[in-house]
C-alpha cells in the first residue's frame, strides 16, 4: 500500500528534510527500502526538479509490514484439507465452528497486576524484576521526594494567589520517576499533564518549573500557556497540550519517523484513564499497531477523570485489554510500585525499539490530590478512600522502605534532602515572581510567519481596550 502526499510551492520548502529519504541517483528512497520509485510516474526525478509553483503529486512508499506480508503469504498458499475447515481471510486463517458462541464481554478473572514490592516495600519472594543500582535507586527516591515538595509548595503558591493554577502528581510519583528512569534520554516524551517528574528526572531545573508557572520572560512558552504546561526541546519533552489525548496520534507519527531514521529510540506517550475515552486514543493505538511504530502508550489509570469514576468511564477490564483489540502487546502494572514500573518500562522499551512495535502499559494508581486547583474532590469521593491511598498505598514511602532496607538511605539524608529542595524551590519562586513578564505583543507571535489580518485586528482591539481601562489589566506586563 502506498500513501501519497501533495507537494506544493509551500511544502517544497521542506525539500531539504525530505531529500534525506531519497537517493538522488535513482530517485528511490533508501529508508523506505521497497525499491519502488518515489514518484508516481516512475521517472528518476530529483525533488529539485519539481515545479515549485503548482501542486504536484508524489508517491511515498511506507515501510513494509512484516506481519501483513506473512499473512498475505499464508493466504496465497492454502489448499490442504485442514484449510478447508478454515476461512482464508486477510489477517490470517479463521477456523470454522458450527457452535454459535458470542465472545464474552469480559473474562472471568481480571487481568492480574504485576508487582515486585508489597505495600510495605518488602520484596515479594521469587519476583522477577530488573535490579537497579544504588546510584539509580537513590536518584529515583530523591526525585520522588523533590516532586512531592514541588507539588506542596506550588500548590500553596496558587492558594496564596501568586500563580493562577496548579495540578499535583501526588500518589503518582512512582509512575513519574520510575518510568523516566527506565528510558533513554533520546526517547521522546509526549505527556498528558500529570507527569512533570519525567522532566524533573531529565534535569529540568526547579527554576525552569517556577518560570513556567509564573509565566515570566524566561518561560519557554513566553507566558502564553497556563501553569504546568511545561515543554523542553533539550529534554525531548513535547509541550503539554490542554486538550487531552491529542498526543497519541502524534506519538504514533513521531515513532514512525524514528523508525524511518533508524534511531535506537522510542516515543513514550502518557495518558490518563479519562483520556482513553477520546477518539484520539483509539486512532493513536490503531495507527501505531498498523504502522509498527516504536511507541509506548503509558496509561495512568488513577481511578478518576476529574469527578468521573472509571466505573462510569468504561465497562472493559480497565485499559490493558484494549491493547489486544488493536493488536498491541500490553501489561498491567502496579503504578505505586516503583520497581515494577521500572522493570515493565525497561522491557517495553526493549521490545518497542528492537522489534519496532507499540506497547501498552496500564499502571493502576490513585490520584491522591484534587484534579487541579479548580476542583474539590471531596464533593464526589469519600475521604476514607483518599486517606487509604495516601497512607497505606503510598508509593514514595514504599520505595523508601526498599531503598532503606538495602542500606542506601538514612534519616539524616532524608532531612538534608527535604530541607535543601525546599530552600532551592522557595528561592526559585522568588526569582520567578520578580522576573519581568513577556511583552503583550508575544501573545500574537510565533504561530504564523506573517500574522493574518484577524490576529492583527485582535491585537489592535486589545491595545485600545487596555488604554481605555488600564486598571483592569495587570500592570507588570509590558504593553
Ligand atoms: C479533549 C478534551 N476533553 C475534555 C477536557 C477536559 N478535561 C481536562 S482533564 C479531564 C479529565 C482527564 O482525566 P484522566 O485522563 O483520567 O487524567 P487525570 O486527570 O486523572 O490524571 C477532562 C475531561 C480536555 N481538557 N480535553
Ligand atoms: Mg484519571
Automatic annotation (TrEMBL):
Keywords: Oxidoreductase. Residues 143-439 form the Dehydrogenase E1 component domain. Pfam families: E1_dh. Residues 457-471 have a biased composition (Basic and acidic residues). The keyword Hydrolase does not apply. The keyword Membrane does not apply. Residues 455-479 are annotated as: Disordered. PANTHER family: 2-OXOISOVALERATE DEHYDROGENASE SUBUNIT ALPHA, MITOCHONDRIAL. This is Dehydrogenase E1 component domain-containing protein. It comes from Hibiscus sabdariffa.
Amino acid at each position: 500500500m502506498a500513501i501519497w502526499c501533495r507537494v506544493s510551492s509551500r511544502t517544497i520548502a521542506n525539500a531539504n528534510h525530505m531529500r534525506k529519504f531519497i537517493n538522488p541517483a535513482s530517485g528511490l528512497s533508501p529508508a523506505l527500502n521497497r525499491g519502488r520509485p518515489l514518484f508516481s510516474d516512475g521517472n528518476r526525478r530529483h525533488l529539485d526538479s519539481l515545479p515549485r509553483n503548482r501542486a504536484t503529486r508524489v508517491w511515498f512508499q511506507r515501510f513494509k509490514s512484516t506481519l501483513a506480508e506473512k499473512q498475505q503469504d499464508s493466504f496465497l498458499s492454502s489448499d490442504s484439507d485442514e484449510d478447508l475447515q478454515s476461512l482464508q481471510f486477510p489477517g490470517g486463517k479463521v477456523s470454522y465452528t458450527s457452535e454459535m458462541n458470542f465472545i464474552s464481554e469480559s473474562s472471568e478473572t481480571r487481568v492480574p497486576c504485576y508487582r515486585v514490592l508489597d505495600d510495605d516495600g518488602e520484596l515479594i519472594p521469587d519476583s522477577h524484576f530488573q535490579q537497579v543500582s544504588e546510584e539509580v535507586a537513590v536518584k529515583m527516591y530523591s526525585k520522588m521526594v523533590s516532586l512531592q515538595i514541588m507539588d506542596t509548595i506550588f500548590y500553596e503558591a496558587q492558594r496564596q494567589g501568586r500563580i493562577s493554577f496548579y495540578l499535583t502528581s501526588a500518589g503518582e510519583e512512582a509512575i513519574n520517576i520510575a518510568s523516566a528512569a527506565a528510558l533513554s534520554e533520546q526517547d521522546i516524551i509526549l505527556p498528558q499533564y500529570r507527569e512533570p517528574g519525567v522532566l524533573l528526572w531529565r534535569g529540568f531545573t526547579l527554576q525552569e518549573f517556577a518560570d513556567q508557572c509564573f509565566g515570566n520572560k524566561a518561560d519557554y512558552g513566553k507566558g502564553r500557556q497556563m501553569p504546568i504546561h511545561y515543554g523542553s526541546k533539550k529534554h525531548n519533552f513535547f509541550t503539554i497540550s490542554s486538550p487531552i489525548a491529542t498526543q497519541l496520534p502524534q506519538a504514533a507519527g513521531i515513532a514512525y519517523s524514528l523508525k524511518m531514521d533508524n534511531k535506537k529510540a522510542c516515543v513514550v506517550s502518557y495518558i490518563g484513564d479519562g483520556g482513553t475515552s477520546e477518539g484520539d486514543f483509539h486512532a493513536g493505538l490503531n495507527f501505531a499497531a498498523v504502522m509498527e511504530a516504536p511507541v509506548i502508550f503509558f496509561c495512568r489509570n488513577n481511578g478518576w477523570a476529574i469527578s468521573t469514576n472509571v466505573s462510569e468511564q468504561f465497562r472493559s477490564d480497565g485499559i490493558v485489554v484494549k491493547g489486544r483489540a488493536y493488536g498491541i502487546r500490553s501489561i498491567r502494572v502496579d503504578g505505586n510500585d516503583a520497581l515494577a514500573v521500572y522493570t515493565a518500562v525497561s522491557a517495553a522499551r526493549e521490545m518497542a525499539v528492537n522489534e519496532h512495535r507499540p506497547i501498552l502499559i496500564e499502571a493502576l494508581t490513585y490520584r491522591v490530590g484534587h484534579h487541579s486547583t479548580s476542583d474539590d474532590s471531596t464533593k464526589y469521593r469519600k475521604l476514607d478512600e483518599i486517606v487509604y491511598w495516601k497512607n497505606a498505598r503510598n508509593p514514595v514511602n514504599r520505595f523508601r522502605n526498599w531503598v532503606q532496607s538495602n542500606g542506601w538511605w538514612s534519616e539524616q539524608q532524608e532531612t538534608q534532602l527535604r530541607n535543601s529542595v525546599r530552600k532551592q524551590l522557595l528561592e526559585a519562586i522568588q526569582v520567578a515572581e520578580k522576573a519581568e513578564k513577556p511583552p503583550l505583543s508575544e501573545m500574537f507571535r510565533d504561530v504564523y510567519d506573517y500574522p493574518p489580518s484577524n490576529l492583527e485586528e485582535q491585537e489592535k482591539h486589545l491595545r485600545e481596550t487596555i488604554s481605555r481601562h488600564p486598571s483592569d489589566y495587570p500592570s507588570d506586563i509590558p504593553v
